[in-house]
């Protein structure tokens, strides 16, 4: 039988512990040493020779988390690990997935190259900012969907008056999948953004009069888009506005923005740990989903079985 080893990055320890609990196997021993200038040296304190090794870490800011993942992979590769999987619940730098202006990097492609160069044999992640990022890799990518967490949760609620909404044109496909699954209507918010993290204007396309609207997004960074969209929707006659976002980046004034907004609730997952609690933010755990993905990977079972179907 193939030996399986699970290891955690520093900032994702809480999520990794939940995943290991669902998986039924304790996390392996790894030590992250730091030199006085900040350089890090991960040390795997147990044999991984010939093992299926899974490193669990979201590559959230700061960039140390990405560097830590790369070094852990390299360490396992040089220790003759049999198969190395980078489990990245949140894949950082995914928003820079194309060259949309002169002299800018395609950062998502660069990160893909780095992970492969370090020695990763497989990537497991959830809700990439753009599906096509999977094509940046020449190794298998298991792209899990937040739908597998949010849809069962929403199915327990009364959705008879719900309309689903996309906070921008780019997220229409994501929001449409919820509208189709629950057989509800879809509206679109068209935003104008002149600089990053600041929305200048928002136009709602569709009828929301008297409806309870649920905004669907892949991440909430400053939450400016979600809050502006919620206000625009409420101004058009909606009864209430809630939001769901897989990745709770929540940087800058995000918490204040949400707490001072018309949003009644925001549902997120624990791919990124919250910096502080908020009465408006509800966290749903993705640990069970990733534990099943890890098991299906090393038991050569289908990952498609983890997707929500109707």
Explain what this protein looks like in three dimensions.
There is one protein chain. The protein is of the alpha/beta class and 310 residues long. It has two domains: 4-144 and 288-306, Rossmann fold (3-Layer(aba) Sandwich); 147-285, Rossmann fold. Helix content is 28%, strand content 25%. The chain contains eight helices and 14 strands. The chain has helices at 13-23, 64-78, 107-118, 147-155, 172-182, 224-235, 254-259, 287-298, and strands at residues 4-8, 30-34, 40-44, 52-56, 83-88, 122-126, 141-144, 162-166, 186-192, 201-205, 212-220, 240-248, 265-269, 281-284. Strands 10-9-8-11-12-13-14 form a seven-stranded mixed β-sheet. It has a five-stranded parallel β-sheet with strand order 1-4-5-6-7, sandwiched between helices. Helix 2 (64-78) links the parallel strand 4 (52-56) and strand 5. The longest helix is centred in the first third of the chain and has 15 residues, at 64-78. The model has no long low-confidence stretch (mean pLDDT 93).
């Amino acid at each position: 039988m193939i030996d399986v080893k699970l290891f955690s990055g520093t900032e994702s320890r809480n999520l990794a512990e939940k995943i290991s609990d669902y998986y039924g196997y304790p996390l392996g021993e790894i030590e992250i040493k730091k030199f006085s200038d900040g350089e890090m040296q991960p040390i795997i304190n147990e044999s991984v020779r010939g093992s299926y090794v899974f490193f669990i870490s979201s590559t959230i800011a700061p960039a140390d988390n990405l560097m830590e993942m790369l070094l852990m992979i390299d360490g396992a590769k040089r220790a003759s690990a049999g198969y190395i999987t980078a489990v990245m619940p949140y894949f950082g730098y995914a928003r820079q997935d194309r060259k949309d202006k002169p002299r800018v990097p395609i950062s998502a492609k660069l990160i893909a190259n780095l992970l492969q160069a370090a020695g990763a044999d497989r990537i497991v992640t959830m809700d990439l900012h753009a599906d096509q990022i999977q094509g940046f890799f020449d190794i298998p990518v298991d792209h899990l969907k937040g739908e597998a967490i949010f849809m069962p949760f929403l199915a327990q609620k009364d959705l008879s008056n719900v309309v689903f909404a996309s906070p921008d044109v780019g997220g229409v496909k994501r929001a449409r999948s919820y509208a189709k699954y629950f057989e509800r209507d879809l509206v679109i918010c068209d935003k104008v953004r002149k600089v990053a993290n600041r929305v200048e204007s928002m136009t709602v396309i569709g009828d929301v009069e008297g409806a309870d609207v649920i905004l669907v997004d892949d991440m909430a960074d400053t939450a400016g888009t979600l809050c502006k969209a919620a206000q625009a929707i409420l101004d058009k006659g909606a009864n209430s506005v809630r939001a769901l976002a897989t990745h709770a980046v929540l940087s800058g004034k995000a918490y204040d923005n949400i707490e001072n907004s018309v949003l009644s609730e925001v549902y997120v997952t624990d791919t990124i740990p919250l910096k502080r609690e908020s009465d408006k933010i509800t966290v749903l755990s993705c640990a069970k989903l990733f534990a099943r993905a890890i098991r299906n990977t090393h038991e050569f079972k289908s990952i498609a079985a983890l997707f929500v179907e109707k």
